[in-house]
Amino acid sequence: MPQVSKSRPPSGSGRGRKRKLLEGEPVVDAEVGDGGQGELWVEKHAPKTVSDLVVHGKKVGDVRRWLESRLQDPGWRLPGGQLLLLTGPPGVGKSAVVCMLGKELGLEYFEWKTPTPTQWQEHVHHGFTGHRYTSKLDEFEAFVDSARKFPVLPVGSCGSSGRKVKVLLIEDLPHVNDAAQTQQLCRILHELVRSVCFITVVVMTDVSEDGGGRNMRLWGLREAQQTLEAAGATKIVFNPVTPNSIKRLLTKIAATEKCRLSGDYISAIAENCGGDLRHAMSSLQFQCTGHKLRSTKEKESFEFGNARKSALDDNVIRGSDFEAGTSSSPTYGRDNIFSLYHALGKFLHNKRHTDQPLEASQESLLILSEHYRRHPLNMEVPERILSEAQIEFPTLAAFLHENVLDFVDEEAVDDVADIFTYLGDADILLSRRPRGSSSSSSLNDISSSHIAALAAGSVAARGVLFANTHPAPRKWQSVRAPTLWQVERLLSEKKDSTMSRLQATRVPVGAALPSQLSSEVPSRCTPDSPPEEEDEPMDDIRSLTADCIVDLDTLEDLDDDLPHSNTQEQMHVLDRGPSNGFLEDDMEEDEDVIEDDDDD
Amino acid sequence: MATTVAATSLAKDYDLPWVEKYRPHKVADIVGNQDVVARLQVIAQGGNMPNLIFSGPPGTGKTTSILALAHELLGPNFKEAVLELNASDDRGIDVVRNKIKMFAQKKVTLPPGRHKVVLLDEADSMTSGAQQALRRTMEIYSNTTRFALACNLSSKIIEPIQSRCAIVRFSRLSDSEILDRLLRVVEAEKVAYVPEGLEAVVFTADGDMRQALNNLQATFSGFQFVNQDNVFRVCDQPHPLLAQHIIKHCVAGNIDDAYVGLKQLYDLGYSATDIITTLFRVVKNYEMVEFLKLEFIREVGFAHMRIADGVGTLLQLSGLLAKLCKVREKCKA
C-alpha cells in the first residue's frame, strides 16, 4: 500500500528543527517496533520547552538574560551590543537553546538561509537567461548589507503590542577558502556587529582541532570568531554535555522506544560520544534496531528466510549482555575517540598474565637472559588492537608520549629511557610519511608509507608494553590529549598572524623605503648575496631577523620584536616561512612598487 | 535476486570482473562484520534508515552494503529515489548545495518508513567546505531524505557531520571469511586449484576481499590453475615461505643460512621494496618472543625507510639480517 511519502515541507522557516531532547517528555506517538514510523530519534525526541533542555542551566540562563536585557531596552546602542555569538562543539544544544528560548520569549527568527546556488556550468551555458553565478560570500554580504541598511524588521519592544520581536539568526556562515576570503568574511561580520540595529544571534560550531580531524583546517572560523568578539559581540561558549545527563536521557528514550538495552550498554554510548548528544541519540537509534527486531519477532514471529538468522540471534543476545565486554571493537562512538582510548588503555595499563611463567623461546637454542623476558600479554596481539581501533598512528604516538609517564613507577628511570627510545624511533618512522595531501604521490608511495606507519605503530605500542616493567600502582587516571597539538596549533597561529601582519604592512613599506635603499633592493633580494656597502642598517636588520626566527621556534610572542616595517626583514622572515611561492610573488610586487617610485 | 541476475545475463557477464560479478546484492550475503550486517538487515526490513557513516579499510564491503541496503529499502524505486555521488563525480560546495538540495526537494512516492537516500561514496575525499554545506541540508530534509556516507577514515569527516550520523565501523575480513567466499567463487567459475593456492591468494589479499577476488581472477586467467607459485607470480610478490625461512634463520642466529635465503630471493629479481614489504608482513605474523618481535619490527621498519629513500641495495638487506642476528645475540642469556 504505497502512499505518498511524508513530504512535509522542510519545516518552512527553517526553524522547525529541534534537536535536543528533554527530560521527562512523554512521547506521544509510541509507534515503535514496527519500524514503519520514519523519523529520526534526534527529531522525534527533540525538546519541546526550555525545561526539556539538557544544557547546563547556567548557560541557558546566560542566553536568556542576554535576550531579555536586549528586549527590555531597545535603545541599547553600545557598539556590538546587539549581537550574541554562541559557540561550542557539535551536538551540545546551541541551536536548541536558541530555538526554545525564542519560543518562550516570543521571538520570531529571521534566518539567513544559503540560497541554492547556480552552478558554474549553468552560468556558463545559460548566462544570458539570468542564471548568474554569484559566490556565497557575495550573497551573504548583500544580505548583511540589506539587513543593516534597511531595518525592515521592527526594532525591539513590540512584544507587548502582541507582535513578535524579530531576531536575525545566522547559523550557516559562508565557507571561505583562503586568506582573502577570510578577510572579506571578517569585514562583513565586523560591519554587521558594528551597525546592526536589531538583535542578532550567530551560532557557530567549534571544530576541535585535536583528534584525527586536526589536519582538516577549516578556514576562517577562528578568525570570524575573533572578529566578532573584537567588535564587541557577547560570546557564550557551550560545553559538551556531561555523560550523566546523556545517560539519563538515553535511558528515558530507550524506555519510551521499548528497547531493552542494558544500562551498561547505554552508559558506554553516553561516555563515548564525547559529550555530543545528537550523536549519542543517533547511535542509540542504530544500536536499538537489532533489539527492536527481537521484540517484534516475539510478537509476530518474524521470519528471516536465510541462514543469517542464527547469526542475528546470537548477536541480539550478545548485545543484551554486552557488559561482558566480549566485543573488542565497538561499532559505535563518534570518530575514533572511543576506540582510541580503548587501545590506549590496553597499552598503558600493560596487563599481563603474571601468574604464568615468563615466556621462553620456542627455539630451544635461544634462552633469553632474565632482563628480556616478560610475562605473556593479557590481551590480543597489539597489531590486531591497532587495526581494529582504526587509529591514525601519529595520533597514537602522540597520546602515548603524553600519557605514558603516569603509568610508570616514579623510580623506574631506565624504563622511561627505554620507552622514549622506542617512541622516538616510532617518530622517525612516522616522519617518512608524506604529510598532508597525498594527491601527488603515486600508488607505490602510498603503500610504502603505509608500511612505515604500520611499523611505527607497532614499535610505539610494543615499545611501551615491553619497556614498562615497573608499572605505577594502579589508580584511576585520565588520559590527556597531547600538549604537542596545542603547541603545533599555537605555532601555526603565530605563523599565520605574522604572515598576515606582514602582508598588511607590505604596501606602505614599499612606499616608505628610503630612496637610497630603494634603488638597491632588487639586487639584495636574495639573502645569499647581501651587499657589502650597507653596513649599519644591515646589521641591525640581521639581528632583528635572527630574533624573529628564534622567536618563531621558541614560540614566544612576536609582537614586541616585530618592528617598524622593513622590507629586508620581511623577506628574511618570509624566507623561512612555510610558503615560498607566496614569498616570491611578494618580492616581485615589492620590486614593482619600488620601480614605480623610481620612475616618478 | 543475485542468482537471477547472474543467470539471465550469463553470456554478457563473461568478461565482468569477478568483483562485480559476485558483488552481493543482498545485505544478508555480505561477508564478515556480522554485527553490522545484522543491524543493516533489520534496517533493510524495517525501513527508517538513520543517517549513517560507514568507515573501514578498503575491500571490507562498505560500498556493497550501502548499495545493497538501498536496493532492499527502495526496491523498484531505486532509480528515482537514490542519488549516488562518488569521488569521480563533481562534489564541490555548489554541487552539494544545488544537486543534493534539488534531490532532497524532489517528491517521490515511497512506502511509509522509506526515505530517499543520498549515497556519498568515498566521502573522505570531499572537501571540508563541501561537507560544511552538507550539514544543513542533512538536517532540514531529514524527514524525506537520509544520507549514507562511506569512507576509509571517519576522522576525515568533519565533526558536525559525524555528529549527525551513526557511525558504522567495518573491520578487515578474517582469512577464513575470505577463504569461504573464494571457495564459492571457485566452485561457480569451475576453477582448478590446490588449497595452497587459495591460501596464497588469501595471504596476498591481507583482509581485502576485492584484492582477493582480483588476484584469484588474474591467476586463473593467466595460468588456468591456482597454485602457490602461480599466485605469487601473478601478484609479483616474493614467496612468503622464503621470507619465513629467512626470519627463522635469523631467530636461530644462523646468519649464513639467512643470507642464502635472501640472496635467493634477490636473484629471483624482486626489488628491495618488495622483499622488505614481504619481510615486514612475515615478521608481523611470526611467532616469537616479545622482545625479539619488537626489535625485529623496528629494524625492518628502519630498513624499509632507507629503502624507500632509494637505497635499495642488497647491502641494506644484508645489513638488516646482520642486525636481526645481533639483536638475537644481545638478548641471549
From TrEMBL, chain A:
The keyword DNA-binding does not apply. Keywords: ATP-binding, Cell cycle, DNA damage, Nucleotide-binding, Nucleus. GO terms for biological process: DNA damage checkpoint signaling; DNA repair; mitotic DNA replication checkpoint signaling. Pfam families: Rad17 (PF03215). Signal peptide: none annotated. InterPro entries: Checkpoint_prot_Rad17_Rad24, P-loop_NTPase. Residues 583-600 have a biased composition (Acidic residues). One of its GO terms (molecular function) is DNA clamp loader activity. Residues 1-12 have a biased composition (Low complexity). One of its GO terms (cellular component) is nucleus. It is found in: Nucleus. Its main location: nucleus. Residues 1-34, 496-539, 557-600 are annotated as: Disordered. PANTHER family: CELL CYCLE CHECKPOINT PROTEIN RAD17. Belongs to the rad17/RAD24 family. This is Cell cycle checkpoint protein RAD17. It comes from Ceratodon purpureus.
Automatic annotation (TrEMBL), chain B:
Pfam families: AAA (PF00004), Rep_fac_C (PF08542). Its main location: nucleus. The keyword Nucleus applies. One of its GO terms (biological process) is DNA repair. May be involved in DNA replication and thus regulate cell proliferation. Heterotetramer of subunits RFC2, RFC3, RFC4 and RFC5 that can form a complex with RFC1. This is AAA+ ATPase domain-containing protein.
